[in-house]
């Protein structure tokens, strides 16, 4: 059974919001190309517990499988868009999470 995969990203600082929109457009196009979906993002994260809450923007994306995430990440168009993200933001992390296994 193929399980879904998720990508969670934390961008601490976006230094130029106007130029960063070029990255956002590239991200959306690359997600569509690899059957991914932007589930949500927030610049106003409320940390309910813990002493090191993430700063800045949290992003959650969904993909049909791990293979889809790998293809999206390796995509030349997405990597070109990522160059914009790297130039106009500080990225703390981008992580892949697997869907929960079936529970019996």
UniProtKB/TrEMBL annotation:
InterPro entries: Dimeric_a/b-barrel (IPR011008), DUF1330 (IPR010753). Residues 4-94 form the DUF1330 domain. Gene3D superfamilies: 3.30.70.100. Transmembrane segments: none annotated. This is DUF1330 domain-containing protein. It comes from SAR86 cluster bacterium.
